[in-house]
Write a structure and sequence with these properties.
The protein is an all-alpha fold. The chain has a single domain, classed as Up-down Bundle (A middle domain of Talin 1). It is built from twelve helices and four strands. Strands 1-4 form a two-stranded antiparallel sheet. The longest helix has 35 residues. The radius of gyration is 19 Å and the shape is globular. Its main location: membrane. It is a multi-pass membrane protein. This is Conjugal transfer protein TraR.
C-alpha cells in the first residue's frame, strides 16, 4: 500500500509538470490538457477495474465504481483542492464543460432505466464521448502561453510527452496497488459488491485523479485541477461505462438501489457544481468544506446501511441536521452576493 502511495505522488508530480509544459509548447490552454489528456490518464485505473469486474460477472462493482468515482471526484477532489487554494473557474467550465457533465449523467440515467446497459447503450455512450471531446477541444481553442515561454522543438516536446506518459503509468500502477489492498480489507469486513464498488474501489481508482489535482492546486495550476475532475467524470461515464458495456459478455445489470439512490445522488452532485461555480467563478474554502461534508454524510449513510453501525447512523443524523444546513446557508448567501455583484 505504501508503494502505491509513493507511485501516486511521483506520478502526479510528473504528470502535472509535463502537462503544463505541453500546454505551453502547443499553445493550448492548460484547462484543455486537464480535461482531456490528464483526465483520461487518471481514469485508466477505473477502466481497468470496470472491465475486469464485467468479465468476472461482478457488474455491481463495474457500475458502482463509476458512480462512486464520479461522486468522489466532485465532492472530495474539488473540496480538498479548494481548501489548498480557492479554485478560480474558467467561464468555459460553467458554460460548456459542466453542462456536458450533467448531460452525460442524464444520458446514463436514461439508458439505465431498462435495468441494464446493453452493447447498444455502450456504443451510444462512446459516441457521446467523442462528441464531447470535439466540443471541448473546439471551444477551448488556442490559448496564450502558460507560465514561461516554452522552447519549441522535437527533443523538448518528446521529453515532456515521455514524462507525461511515465507519470500517468505510475498513477495507474499506484492506483492498482492501492485498490487491490483495499478490496482485500473490504472483503474481510464483509461488505457487499455494490458497497465495495461505490466506496473502496471508487476511491481507490480515483486516487490518481486526486493526486494529480492536488499537485496541480499546490503548483497553482487551477485549470488543470478543475479540468481533471470534470474530464475524469465525463470519461468515466461515457468512456469507461460505454466501453465496458460494449465489450462485456453480458449486459451490465443495474441494481435497484443504484437506480433509485446512487444515480440520482451522482446527478445531484453534478448539478451542485452550477451554483458553486457561478458564485464568482470560483470555489472558496467554505464551499470546499461543504463538498467534503456532503461526502462524509454520504459515506456515513453507506456505512450505516451496509453495517447497521449505530455510531454511523448518529453521525449521519448530526451531519444532516446541523453541519450541512449551516454550510448550505453560507454557500447560498455567498452565491446570492456574487449574483448581486455581477448584476
Amino acid at each position: 500500500m505504501l508503494s502505491g502511495l509513493l507511485l501516486l505522488l511521483i506520478g502526479a508530480e510528473l504528470s502535472v509538470r509535463a502537462a503544463v509544459h505541453l500546454a505551453a509548447i502547443f499553445k493550448v490552454r492548460p484547462l484543455i490538457i486537464g480535461l482531456t489528456v490528464v483526465a483520461m490518464g487518471t481514469s485508466a485505473p477505473q477502466m481497468a477495474v470496470s472491465l475486469q469486474a464485467a468479465f468476472s460477472d461482478n457488474t455491481d462493482i463495474a457500475v458502482g465504481s463509476v458512480i462512486g468515482g464520479n461522486i468522489f471526484n466532485v465532492l472530495v477532489i474539488l473540496g480538498l483542492c479548494s481548501l489548498i487554494i480557492p479554485l478560480r473557474v474558467a467561464r468555459q467550465v460553467l458554460h460548456i464543460d459542466i453542462p456536458l457533465m450533467i448531460g452525460a449523467c442524464l444520458l446514463a440515467i436514461g439508458l439505465s432505466w431498462s435495468g441494464e446497459f446493453s452493447k447498444f447503450d455502450g456504443a451510444l455512450l462512446l459516441v457521446a464521448l467523442l462528441a464531447c471531446l470535439v466540443i471541448i477541444i473546439r471551444q477551448g481553442g488556442q490559448g496564450p502561453r502558460h507560465g514561461r515561454a516554452a522552447t519549441s522543438g522535437k527533443p523538448r516536446t518528446f521529453t515532456r510527452m515521455a514524462m507525461l506518459t511515465v507519470g500517468l503509468l505510475m498513477l495507474v500502477a499506484g492506483g492498482h496497488l492501492l485498490v487491490d489492498a483495499s478490496v482485500v480489507i473490504a472483503i474481510h469486513l464483509g461488505l457487499s459488491e455494490r458497497i465495495i464498488g461505490l466506496t473502496v474501489i471508487a476511491i481507490g481508482t480515483s486516487l490518481p485523479a486526486l493526486m494529480a489535482s492536488l499537485i496541480a492546486a499546490l503548483r497553482g495550476e487551477r485549470d488543470i485541477a478543475v479540468g481533471n475532475v470534470i474530464g475524469s467524470n465525463l470519461f468515466n461515464l461515457l468512456g469507461v461505462l460505454g466501453l465496458t458495456a460494449l465489450v462485456a459478455p453480458m449486459p451490465l445489470t443495474i441494481s435497484p438501489n443504484a437506480l433509485v439512490f446512487d444515480l440520482p445522488i451522482m446527478l445531484g452532485v453534478s448539478l451542485l457544481c452550477v451554483p458553486l461555480f457561478y458564485s464568482g467563478y470560483r470555489i472558496d474554502r467554505i464551499e470546499g468544506l461543504l463538498l467534503l461534508a456532503l461526502y462524509l454524510t454520504y459515506g456515513l449513510h453507506i456505512l450505516a446501511i451496509s453495517t447497521g453501525m449505530a455510531l454511523a447512523e448518529r453521525l449521519e443524523s448530526l451531519m444532516l441536521t446541523a453541519v450541512l444546513p449551516v454550510l448550505g446557508i453560507v454557500v447560498v448567501w455567498g452565491t446570492v452576493r456574487a449574483w448581486r455583484r455581477q448584476h
